[in-house]
Amino acid sequence: MSAPPRRRRFTLTQRVVWAVTATVALFVGLQSLLAYFAMHTQEDDLTDDMLRREVQQLITLTLRPGLMPVGALEASPGLTAYLTRGSDGMAAMPPELKSLAPGLYQLAPGGRNWHVAVVDTEDGRLRIVLDATASEARVYHFGYTLLVLWCICVAVAALIARGVAAIAVGPIVEATRSIARWAPDRPAGQPPPLDEAGVLMETFNRFRDRVDDTVAREREFAANLDHEIRTPLTTIRTDAELIALETALAPAGQQRIDRIIASVDDIVATTESALSSSAGRSEAAAPIALRECLRTVCDALADRAAQRNLRIEIAVDSGPALVADRQALLTVCRNIVRNAIEHAAPATLRVEGDARGLTFNDDGPGITAVELPHVFERFHQGHRADDGGTQAAPRRGLGLAIARRMCDLQGWRLSVRSPLANGRGTTFTLAFGAPV
To answer: How many CB atoms lie within 10 A of CB 223?
Structure first.
């Protein structure tokens, strides 16, 4: 079964040309019609005025009964009068005039144009005929001239409209072609659109389909990764718990086992948080003890902080609990502390705040003014303020981007200031409600 033929659609350039040309044609056409009708009305009025004057003159001549002969009376070129008394003079009169009662008439015998006045006088019935054929011909000639001028105006308007369209629409057309070239490949068998609007819509649909496919693949990858990671992590956690139960361990060994179990739980929770973030959803809110939550984060990163010589101080009261997604808060705090370990150390990180918000202050070298606007961008590798902008960051620049994304999902606000008043240090502010 053959596909139905596609309906022809005008391009954007053609639409502009047609719109401008149609506007000019309509405006000039209306002006021409008004001029023609004014000319035609004026010609009729002049003819009627001339006929009335001739009637008055002939009536004056007929005030003396019996002095004017019956029949045809030549009054002036193009004007003929007929006087009848009863049936006398009827033979010389054109048959179109014989049955006319007194009044004004317009007749067209044999393609001519007559203006006729019929008047009863004391000397008989007077019929006056004014031949306005030549005047009507001049009116028609004037109309033909207006028509030719209208056609010329429309043609000139079309040429001008093409130039205007090239100037006004040309950049849009070029941009449309460029976007179409950048778009993913068109599905096989799908014909290209015929106009710019169709090209943009079809290109948008191709981009949207590609984005949908990419998001679907990312979510599938995350789900598969979560499934594949859980099995070995469960084995590691189980083995670590069995070792702790079956073997008498020294305090240092028991501490390592506990750290392994906590790290496994941290990986599982982080994976679940990443899945929730990629799907744009958050877990149910529950009361959170801020100090306990921060202590969990710092204990998990204690060895790494000690290796990099970062001292962590938690100055958060065990006051009113924060009602929020605990895993989201852990993710945000973990990435901020990890960023301080990797970029601020050696330094001291002090965490302060309450249920309204938290501040993470370090006295490290700070962040350069050039790098500061980009710290929350994905894969941005920043530089310390004291490395001259030459030392590459050791990580891939995802931690702070993940923290900002998680804050956006929760309705929190994460901001940064650096360097501080003394030219060193960085402050990350996490606001849960009102600004801190």
So the answer is: 13
